[in-house]
Structures are given as C-alpha cells and as structure tokens.
Amino acid sequence: MSTARPGPEEAPREPSVFRRVRTITERDIDELGHVNNLIWVRFVVEMATSHSEAVGLDVAAYRALGSWWIVYRHEIDYRAPAFPGDRVIEETWVSEMRGARSIRQVRFRRESDDALLLEATTTWVFVDARSQKPKRIAPEVRSAFE
Questions:
Q1: What percent of the chain has pLDDT over 90?
Q2: CATH architecture classification, 18-144
Q3: C-alpha distances out from residue 10 to 13, 36, 68, Å
C-alpha cells in the first residue's frame, strides 16, 4: 500500500491570447454601411494566420512539416456592426487541441466603447499536405501554442 500523498492540483492553464488592433476601411464595408459578413470571416482567418506566424509557424514552417491547417467549421456570432474608421481590438487563442483538431476562439471589440462586435469559434483540422487527410497535430505545433 502506497503512503504517497497526492500533489497539489494544477490550476487550469490560461490560454495565450494574441492581440492586435485593426482600423476598418471603406473596402470592408457593404451596401448596408457596415462590415460585410464575408469580411468578418476573412478577419477571423487572418487572425489565425497572424497568431501562427507570431509563434514561429509561418508558411515555410508548415511546409517543412509537410502539413497544413484547413477549416472544418466556423461558428460566428455577430453582436454589433462595425463602421469605417472604427478601431477594432482583435483577440484570438487556441482553446483546445486534440488529435488532428484545434479549436480557436476569436473576439473583436470596438476600441472606443469596448462594444463586443463578433465572437467566433473555428475548428481547424491538421492535415498531411500531400494527401489532405487529417493527421495528429505535430508536437512542435502543439507546444508553440501552449
């Protein structure tokens, strides 16, 4: 019978949040006078790419691994419109990595009044570059986002 005492419980790790600020331009605006839905999707994908580059995983790094990320699913909640000239605080983080899937959160807030503009959850799948079939996330990719 073991008399070893259990160690202290580890607190859940807070995800590393990547932040930047963007100014909304006229080309982001649709005929209704606010940021177009397709533009928001582009912003969500750009945030994932920028975050990845910030942790050292650019196109060349993924090519060297023979792998890539593809979008499996976007879930987007549009909370408030954004207009030309608005400065938007963009935040993203990886909330989960398991097997070949990664769950990424993205949030956009207007800087002037802290209004929540959009929240998105995207499921990304790590794939083999040649076969395009899912493969387990490489340890160096996993550790870069921790």
A1: 88
A2: Roll (3.10)
A3: 8, 43, 32
